[in-house]
Amino acid sequence: MALIGLTPMIATAVGVFVICIIYSIVLSFTNSRLLPNFEFIGFAQYERLWETPRWLISVRNIWLFGFFSIAFNMIFGYLLAVFMDQRIKQEDAFRTIFLYPFAMSLVVTGLVWQWIMDPNLGFQSAVRNMGFTDFRFSPLTNEATAIYGVIVAGIWNGVGVTMAILLAGLRGVDEEVWKAARVDGIPTWKTYLFITLPMMRGAFITAFVLQCVGVVRVYDLIIAMTQGGPGISTQMPAVFVIQHISGRSNVGLGMAAATMMLLPIIVLIAIQQYFAWRSRRRAAGIGAAVATLPQAQGVKAS
């Protein structure tokens, strides 16, 4: 009965994800323009893709956005998790506040931060109204700093969910570990940094993979904040794909870019599955060793 109940979901997942992904990869090897066709041209779309300046800027931006947003999300997320782990008062209220940005649509997040960074409406205008007429803060209007404004919005949106995942990992640490650390006189900050942190590998991998997937598919935030501008300074691969499929009538090139976006996701999933398989194998080995221990003791006694 459970399998029958899951059949519609399985059919949808296979049809929408697996078949459509394969179809997209096939189209990346064709000369599809406005509409898909099956005029195969080999790797010509990929060669053209990596010769396109807009795509090269998109790749540079995604690496820059990914490095800073993931690094700061993991650091700030862990610090917030440590703060929440102190059994503070009104913990539920603080958890809600920290998770609220993640619950918001990325379009709303982008619009909010666009207003904050707008020189005529946001932070710069507010400070100048206080009398500091020379103050300047308009990162989204400058090609050199626009990407960093987007990074700030991405960090604000993602740090809460990272905190929630890592807090769950902290709460899963055995209480005996904390007691032993206190008995040995280990400072609390060292316990969090050198003892509990390595024990939270699963939580960190989950948070890391979730952040990486969010970085690869970032689209709404860019469209809401900058539309890929000024110029193409905040162009991202997802924006590149949508623009070429819908606006530039080049389905083949867009599908080639989408396939390149899929590769890091596959690598991340493979890494996650490898660590999960290794953990299961290690647990099975420990279980087998424990099971054979009574037999070995019986043989030794006889």
UniProtKB/TrEMBL annotation:
Stretch forming the signal peptide: none
Transmembrane segments: 9-29, 62-84, 96-116, 146-170, 191-216, 251-271
Gene Ontology BP, a term: transmembrane transport
Bilayer topology term: Multi-pass membrane protein
Subcellular location as annotated: Cell membrane
Major localisation: membrane
Keywords: Cell membrane, Membrane, Transmembrane, Transmembrane helix, Transport
Annotated ranges, domain ABC transmembrane type-1: 59-272
CC annotations in GO: plasma membrane
InterPro entries: ABC_transporter_permease, MetI-like, MetI-like_sf
Domain of life of the source: Bacteria
Family assignment from sequence similarity: Belongs to the binding-protein-dependent transport system permease family.
This protein's name: Sugar ABC transporter permease
Native source species: Pelagibacterium lentulum
